[in-house]
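In this supplementary section we document a worked example of the pipeline. Step one takes a protein sequence of length 299 as its only input; no multiple sequence alignment statistics are reported here. Step two produces a three-dimensional model, which step three serialises into structure tokens for compact storage. The input and output of this example are shown verbatim.
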Amino acid sequence: MNNLIAQSCNLNTAQSLIYSFNNIERAYPYAFQWRNPDEIVDLIFNKEFITLVANDGEKFNCARDLIRESFVSFTSRLKNFFSYLGPDYCGPNYWKNNSYVLLKGHCYTCRDGKNSASAKLQAKWLGKFPLIESENSLMTLLENLELDLGHLVKPDDETPSCSCLSYRRQVDFLSEFQEEIPGYTPTCIHLTWINKFRNFLTKRTLVREEIHRSRPQTVAAWTYIPPASHGSSGQFKVIFSRDGEKAPVSKWIVYKPKELFTEKDAWKLFDSMLDKGYIPYAAPTLPQLSKAFKSWQCI
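The serialised model returned by step three reads:
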């Protein structure tokens, strides 16, 4: 939102974040087809609506409830599977006191992502975060914007928390947020992601235990090729077998070979695999498949 508009409307911090032009557009995709954001000169608030006032005096009404829902949905949205994996598909790094370092997925943002300065630094720190004794010292490292390593998340605390700016801002102005959204609890994309990831691991373990008690062993293997450039889509490919994870390459079948899957499909595909009793493995962890996947020849 234009800072001048926020100031002229006497919006507090929470209101400025909740009723931002971005959230208004998410709730009303056609709002800024009516007028460009830079043509909006004022906002009029009443109990149920916000009225956008254009520079020619025309007005557009937006329900506050829908905008609030848009804010909550966007703030707690689930990012794709690779968004917070460290090098070599590394998941959350345990620190201590039920806290985890959630690394940003720099390796998967583009094909050269693994060679970025941040990704290389992440690789150096893998397994070493517990050597940092002080939470303040760890926070200083993680929240350094130039290093851009990741965040410290505490999903198991009575009140789950994250070190990211979005979460901290919600905590700092919680009374304002709760005035707009009664009962509001701070959240963020990192807490949503780690909860989904841990649920995935739990479900995978349960399926593995069930399958190991039976035959045949149904398994799937996946690989991911990051996009050629930032902002485009990568390639996510899945093969499956009914002969266990040690099955030779000839015993694996490409899943829906005519469909092009991307990182956006990964969570959905993992859920589908597990629901159907297939244990997913990262292809590089299966020696007989690693070379085949590298050459993109799955069968």
